[in-house]
């Protein structure tokens, strides 16, 4: 089962992918409507379909540690080849800093 830290890193990566896609002005035109990428859409429309096709799993909670790495590598390679985007997987420090920022924002 994936770790809590890995889950936090995974969701931070979803956010970073959405930001990188937005910077290049990509959207989800294949849905026949223009939608700006966000963390939720990256997870639901990109990551989860590849996860289900690769491992037959429908929940990220069921992923094993090594499966997260394989899925990241698969998607990030495709982003690089097709879109010219390379979004690194978050380090523990990145996750910590993002959580700290979120807590500071919540405090006001």
Task: Write up this protein.
The protein has 108 residues and is mainly alpha-helical. It is 67% helix and 0% strand. Helix 1 (4-23) crosses helix 2 and helix 1 (4-23) packs across helix 4. The chain is globular and about 40 Å long.
Estimated structural class: mainly alpha
**Weakly predicted, low-confidence segments:** none
The biggest beta sheet reads:
none
Number of strands: 0
The overall average pLDDT, rounded, is: 92
Q: Indicate the radius of gyration in whole angstroms.
A: 14 Å
Global shape? globular
Report the order of strands and helices: HHHH
Instruction: Give the helix tally.
Output: 4
Helix content: 55-70%
Terminal-residue CA separation: 35 Å
Please report which band the strand proportion falls in: under 5%, 5-15%, 15-25%, 25-35%, 35-45% or over 45%. under 5%
Question: Summary?
Answer:
The chain has 108 residues and is an all-alpha fold. Helices cover 67% and strands 0% of the residues. The mean pLDDT is 92.
List keywords for this structure.
0% strand; 4 helices; 108 residues; mainly alpha
Produce the secondary structure layout.
Layout: H1 4-23, H2 39-55, H3 65-83, H4 92-107
Helix pairs in contact: 1-2, 1-4, 2-3
């Amino acid at each position: 089962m994936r770790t809590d830290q890995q889950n936090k890193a995974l969701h931070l990566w979803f956010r970073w992918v959405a930001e990188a896609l937005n910077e290049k002005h990509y959207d989800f035109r294949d849905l026949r409507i223009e939608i700006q990428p966000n963390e939720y859409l990256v997870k639901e429309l990109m990551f989860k379909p590849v996860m289900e096709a690769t491992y037959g799993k429908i929940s990220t909670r069921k992923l094993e540690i090594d499966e997260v790495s394989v899925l990241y590598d698969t998607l990030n390679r495709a982003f690089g080849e097709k879109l010219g985007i390379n979004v690194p997987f978050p380090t523990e420090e990145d996750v910590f800093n993002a959580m700290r920022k979120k807590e500071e924002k919540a405090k006001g």
